[in-house]
Design a protein that fits this description.
Strand content: under 5%
Oligomer: single chain
Low-confidence stretches: none
Shape: rod-shaped
Order of helices and strands: HHEEEEH
Number of strands: 4
Number of helices: 3
Mean pLDDT: 84
Radius of gyration: 63 Å
Largest sheet: 2 strands, antiparallel
Structural class: mainly alpha
Length: 233
Amino acid sequence: MPNFRESESSLKHKSEFVSKLESKNVTLTEALKKTEEVSKKNEEEKKKISDSVLRYHDQIAAQTTTIVKLKEDLVKEQQSKSALEEQLSKAGNQTTRLDEEIVQLKAMSNEYVHLQEEHHKLEEKCRGQERALEEIANQLKKEILKSNELEEAANSTSAQAHWERDNEVVSCKKCEKEFSLTRRKHHCRNCGGIFCAMCSDNTMMLPSSAKPVRVCDDCNLLLVERYSVVPNN
């Protein structure tokens, strides 16, 4: 902006100077005419007037050259002014683009902050899910250990069991009461012994069965005690 104002001031000054020179040129021309008229009347001063005329011609030529140069300078100043105006216009457009880019960058910055917050939330959620999966895995391990222990206990009991034949037993293995039409025989599905209904009035889940089956009182107590010592967690 300072260069543009200085250029305008210089242009104005030179224009005024050109106007003065042109005015002075007109005055000198008029003086030349008067001198020529006087030279006709006064032959004695002809030589002096001729010299003056020559000097005036030289001055006019010099001033004309100066005027031409000033006009050229004026054209250059006008061109420089136009170039400066074009540069200012481009600078204004660039400023507008920069302002738009700043707005876009601010929007991107806000979006980045939002994404960071979402990222932290997702990380925290993942950590919570990982902890939950670890707890589930630990619980599964415990349940597997419990299942293995129950299976080992059942296998141990089954290995020791002996399935008694009906024709070899005449009385209940527990209460020793004889079997009859009203006191019927019942096998314990755990130990294989034969008992009356009163001494085998229990049901229990066994690894070898898909549903609860009959067991005698002794096996029922044994299995309940064995299952109770297996930890739940």
